[in-house]
Amino acid sequence: MEKINISPENSSIRADIFLAQYFDTSRKQVSQALEKGLILIDGSQKKSSYKLKGTEIIEYNPLFLQKEDIKILPQNIKLDIKYEDDELLVINKPKGMLTHPSAYEREDTLVNALMYHCGENLCGSDPMRRGIIHRLDKDTSGLMLAAKTDFAAESLGSQIKNKTAKRKYLAIALGEFEQSEGIIDKPLVHYMDKTVKMQIAPEGEGKNALTYYRVLEQFRGAALVELELKTGRTHQIRVHLKSLNHPIFGDNLYGARGALIEKYRGIKVEGQLLQSYFLSFTHPKNNEIMTFELEPADWDSDFTRVLKIMRG
Fold first, then answer.
1. Three-state SS string across 6-58, please?
2. Tell me, which fold does domain 68-162 have in CATH?
3. Of 44, 125, 212, 289, whose CB is crowded by the most CB atoms within 10 A?
């Protein structure tokens, strides 16, 4: 059995929600592992609804994370397509949708939807990632690129890797910023092997990660922040903002407790209030600069609702 030490910042979170985010898997998969005794909390079996106290030691058998061969099927899921041609698509991904299937969630992902919408006109041979150029976390909404051809996939992937494609995000972050803008330059490393959770790396370790931020509106105890990625590490924005003591509102994995959330304790949201709202890239075929920006009407409903509350 391997171990996870739960920290106080994760108190009051349901065990299944925390573990699903921690392992980047489904709550169903976690619930089954809890029922089978493959996950123990302080040495005993707990229900999925058990709320963490922030002091527990969780033991888990890595067998529950083993993957199996998966057949991915097309699904007729409505997509909010902002642009489409013979090479690519720009999509507004909703919160709650996985970018691509996992070993435990085979349906209702962006890949399932793209396979139905595009048919054979979708790049890639890996059924898990057909059409995918970059990903957004399940609970991060907003603009994404998808490729129909291998040529487009190579070009767009190279632009993202070389930072010639621009990606900007909006977040509602907790706390009051002392500086209205800045650069977060902190390498990241996995919190533990076989998990998706990340942390700031010890000095001299990890992969470089660079995020620009700019406070657009400062409220009492929270702020609307624009962020631009210069690297694309897993959970980069979420970890970087947490490292400044400005975690994203609704982020259970990298969230906050105590005074930071006291003012907004009664506001309920599903997942972090983070969305990709701006994309700029060069079209693979005609070299035209393509720019897309989400209008407020297309923002995630939770994001809009909480922003309205904070604006008073």
1. CCHHHCCCEHHHHHHHHHCCCHHHHHHHHHHCCEEECCECCCCCCECCCCCEE
2. Pseudouridine synthase (3.30.2350)
3. 212
